[in-house]
TrEMBL record:
PANTHER family: EBNA2 BINDING PROTEIN P100, STAPHYLOCOCCAL NUCLEASE DOMAIN-CONTAINING PROTEIN 1
Domain Tudor, residue spans: 699-759
One GO term (biological process): regulatory ncRNA-mediated gene silencing
Record SUPFAM superfamilies: Staphylococcal nuclease, Tudor/PWWP/MBT
GO CC field: cytosol; nucleus; RNAi effector complex
Keywords carried by this UniProt record: Cytoplasm, Phosphoprotein, Repeat
Protein name, UniProt field: Probable endonuclease LCL3
InterPro entries: Silence_cplx_Nase-comp_TudorSN (IPR016685), SNase_OB-fold_sf (IPR035437), Staphylococal_nuclease_OB-fold (IPR016071), Tudor (IPR002999)
Protein location: Cytoplasm
Renumbered residue ranges of the record's region Disordered: 616-645
Pfam families: SNase, TUDOR
Domain TNase-like: 2-142, 166-309, 318-455, 484-617
């Protein structure tokens, strides 16, 4: 009989093996041992000693090259071949298995082959069997324990809880694919479980299989059969160690499969390009996932197996440096590079709390603030990991890893529960290089119930907008003006000198205006035209202040509810920084009032000397007045004071309004007055026409010119929107020809688009800003109200003569008002009457041009002394300014 050579692939039972061609593993044949039989392994329950019988043969043969001869065949059924197997060490089967008592002779063994060789073999086997029986070996034992073998896990999760962290001895019964095995878990000498196990950390291509739903055969994926064969040749029916880690969504065990000598097979599969890493198991494997990623990378670099068509991502420019200029959300920031270019980047593999998730959305503001505190204004290093293509509703996004002092910011967010980790698709190329660390950090944050994983929502911080109305602003002013260096956050930069700030400890939101300076106006929209250097000032303020922690000193509030004061960033007065760059000019009166005049004038002079910004064409010879004022504000007097003379500029005027701060609105009587009368008659007739009664087509915007119907007389006047309340559908308007204001419904507004009524092209606004010269109104609200009422009564319905003593850079007129019928001398004025009534005082700090009017000041001081003596108005309780 012919002698063949083959390799043992597996052992089906104690008497049957699968052999394959040494050079062609796919060429297989089944061989049963001649003349003997073994206990059967059955799904419904093994026969006694079936496993031990099979295991004896398995340990002896699997993976070894053997020689075999076929003695006979039984042509019925499977056409099975029976023969003898010889090992290289001359061990022969079935002899050794019979001798150990794991096989018994068939009852019909003598009838299978009647040749002389067969008879001799049979006699030898009979003798070996008799000896085994006599020695009670193997199946001939009188009292052997029965192995309980099951093929189902009733509760996989409970099984994992009980055995996690333990090394379980096992045998691979079948290789379904490169990452799926049927494994016999040897829980104890008498307790076995056969179940499917998924290899942790990898996914191998699938093999050919039949779909159970429709019975159709599904072809194998590329390299699926190669992956299966790779595992079969190394693990099939080998002893392994199983470390269970978790359960898949389908209830299958996920485990580390380790060869007793060579360790885990997963890295070898990956290195050969026969599997890919799977992110789903990262949290189960922990740091071990890093070794698998490296193995996968080597296959990608070598373009092996499933990575044959792999194209390596283009390496970027390495780590770049930038400054964080703005935080848009917990996963999106704006950075500014060394050249000043700003761009938006997203954190790789990290997602802010989902606005659409009711449990996560309350954490959005908290997470954004967490990131702002860490990053705003800081120098960071970043590396672009990839780009996410534009989709509907989203532009193309750059995904990057950002580090602050070598700390990964994405990881920091996830560790603190301020962000979640994106679940990438296999083909995504924009994932973070520390993706596994992110997944582990997320799992830890979930377990510790940090941040958005907490069962409790964060306490919602509601900021009250105190600049919404003048009344609210005045209420808050009393509180803030008593405090110094109040911590705040710049939430938005409106212009070079106007900001929206948040004061967390007061839950306050304020419009904040820098005192002592005037910055040029920037364009409000693409069609608007700003003032020279307005945009530069706006950009400078954005760069230095946007989202920064600052401190504010509140001094006063304006008529629109804005809070006026000093803003400090990094302990430096920001108004000074603007002035030094030439992006603002000093407003003399408010600078002196703020107490920062010396500092501000010095900063302005520095910009003038350097010809910066607004002062690029500065001519010192044309700046005598300003330099004199600047010198005096620094404590110089004498001849310099005398040089600043009071103007003589008499104009006929009508006072149209006195606002809450005592500031005046006046109209000059003359050609403008007659033009206004003519315009108002035409304006009134226009709006009486029913064809012109259409309301505004869109909600009004702040700064927009409109026609407004005054509540007191139901007439239409030209006006400008000061503030808009979209919820109440009301707007605060200023009547530009008279200066008064009120809040009215949108229904009382109409467009002012007619060129014949335009304040820009036809007739400019007739109400001019003005203030009384040589007097300072009370700061006490009650006395101030009395003062305003007195001025209003004295000027109501009277044509007066105003001497314009000085004109500020912002156009404000400083005036002394005379009644031509009553004023006989220069010191008989409305200004003087206010002082006489004790409703104003002569300022202690005089402007340069005021110092030059010695006679008027002397007369006013005499009136003030009389008012004090008679305890009039603000002096009713004595002179409270004596301690100043």
């Amino acid at each position: 009989m012919s002698l063949f050579e083959a390799k043992v692939k597996s052992v089906l039972s104690g008497d049957t093996v699968i052999l394959h061609n040494i050079n062609n593993p796919k060429a297989e044949r089944t061989l049963s041992l001649a003349f003997v039989s073994a206990p059967r392994l059955k799904r419904e329950g093994d026969e006694q000693y079936a496993f031990e019988s099979r295991d004896f043969l398995r340990r002896l043969l699997v993976g070894k090259v053997v020689q075999f001869r076929v003695l006979y065949k039984i042509p019925t059924g499977a056409n099975r071949e029976y023969g003898i197997i010889s090992l290289p060490n001359k061990t022969q089967l079935p002899d050794v298995a019979v001798a150990e008592g794991w096989l018994k002779l068939r009852d019909d063994a003598g009838r299978k082959d009647d040749s002389e060789e067969a008879t001799s073999t049979l006699e030898k086997l009979q003798a070996l069997e008799a000896r085994a029986k006599a020695d009670s070996k193997g199946i001939w034992q009188e009292s052997g324990a029965r192995i309980n073998s099951t093929s189902e896990l009733s509760d996989p999760k409970k099984f994992v809880e009980e055995h996690k962290g333990k090394a379980i001895d096992a045998i691979v019964e079948k290789v379904l694919s490169g990452d799926r095995l049927i494994v016999r878990l040897l829980l104890s000498p008498t307790e076995h479980v056969q179940t499917m196990v998924l290899m942790a950390g990898i996914r191998a291509p699938s093999t050919k299989r039949t779909n159970p739903s429709d019975g159709k055969e599904q072809p194998a994926e590329a390299f699926g059969e190669e992956a299966q064969q790779f595992v079969e040749t190394r693990l099939l029916q080998r002893n392994i160690v199983v470390n269970v880690l978790g359960v898949s969504p389908n209830g299958q065990l996920v485990a580390n499969i380790k060869h007793p000598v060579n360790g885990s097979i997963a890295p070898y599969l990956l290195q050969s390009g026969l599997a890919r890493c799977t992110d789903h198991h990262t949290t189960l494997l922990g740091q071990e996932m890093g070794a698998l990623r490296q193995a996968e990378k080597s296959a990608k670099d070598g373009r092996k197996g499933v990575f044959q068509g792999h194209v390596a991502a283009k390496s970027g420019a390495g780590e770049l440096e930038a400054v964080v200029s703005r935080v848009q959300s917990a996963d999106t920031i704006f950075i500014r590079d060394k050249s000043g270019v700003e761009k938006r980047i997203n954190l790789s593999s990290v997602r802010q709390p989902k606005p659409s998730d009711p449990k996560q959305s309350p954490w959005g503001a908290e997470a954004k603030e967490f990131l702002r505190k860490k990053l705003i204004g800081k120098h960071v290093k970043y590396h672009v990991d990839g780009k996410r293509a534009a989709t509907e509703g989203y532009e193309e996004r750059q995904m990057a890893t950002i580090k602050l002092q070598d700390k990964n910011i994405g990881l920091l967010l996830v560790e603190n529960g301020m962000a979640s980790v994106i679940r990438h698709r296999q083909e995504d190329t924009d994932r973070s290089p520390i993706y596994d660390d992110l997944l582990l950090a997320e799992q830890t944050a979930q377990q510790e119930q940090k941040g958005l994983w907490s069962p409790k929502a964060p306490s919602a911080k509601q900021f009250v907008d105190y600049s919404e109305s003048l009344e609210k602003a005045k209420r808050q002013l009393a509180l803030l003006s008593r405090q110094r260096k109040v911590p705040a956050i710049v939430d938005f930069v409106k212009s070079g000198s106007r900001f929206t700030v948040l004061v967390p400890r007061e839950n306050a939101k304020l419009t904040f205006v820098l005192s002592g300076i005037r910055a040029p106006r920037s364009a409000r929209n693409p069609t608007d035209k700003g003032e020279p250097f307005g945009q530069e000032a706006h950009d400078f303020a954005n760069k230095r202040c946007q989202q920064r922690d600052v401190e504010i000193d509140v001094e006063d509030c304006d008529k629109m509810g804005g809070f006026i004061g000093t803003l400090y960033i990094n302990r430096e007065n920001f108004a000074k920084a603007l002035l030094e760059e030439g992006f603002a000019s000093v407003h003399g009166y408010s600078a002196e009032k703020s107490g920062n005049a010396n500092e501000l004038f010095a900063a302005e002079q520095k910009a003038k000397d350097a010809r910066k910004g607004l002062w690029q064409d500065y001519d010192p010879s044309q700046d005598a007045d300003e330099s004199t004022a600047g010198a005096e504000s620094n404590g110089q007097n004498g001849d310099a004071a005398a040089a600043a003379e009071r103007r003589k500029d008499y104009r006929d005027v009508v006072i149209t309004h006195v606002d809450e701060a005592g500031k005046l609105k006046l109209q000059q009587v003359g050609t403008g007055t007659s033009a206004l009368t003519e315009l108002m008659n035409a304006f009134r007739n226009f709006h009486l026409n029913p064809s012109n009664n259409a309301g505004l087509p869109n909600p009004p915007k702040a700064g927009e010119f409109v026609a407004a119907r005054f509540t007191a007389d139901d007439e239409w006047y030209r006006a400008r929107i000061r503030r808009n309340d979209r919820e109440a559908k009301k707007a605060e308007v200023v009547y530009i020809d008279y200066g008064n204001s009120e809040t009215i419904p949108w229904s009382r507004l109409r467009p002012l688009s007619q060129p014949q009524f335009s304040p820009q092209s036809k007739l400019k606004a007739q109400a001019l800003d003005a203030q009384l010269s040589f007097v300072q109104l009370p700061t006490n609200p009650e006395y101030l109200a009395d003062s305003i009422n007195f001025i209003a009564q004295e000027t109501a319905d009277r044509q007066l003569v105003a001497n314009v003593d000085q004109v500020d850079k912002d156009g404000t007129l400083w005036v002394t008002l005379f009644d031509p019928k009553e004023s006989k001398t220069g010191d008989q004025s409305v200004n003087a009457e206010v002082v006489s009534e004790g409703l104003a005082m002569v300022p202690k700090k005089l402007r340069a041009w005021e110092r030059g009017a010695g006679e008027i000041l002397e007369a006013l001081k005499k009136r003030e002394a009389v008012a004090k003596e008679e305890r009039r108005g603000m002096w009713e309780y004595g002179d409270l300014t004596e301690d100043d």
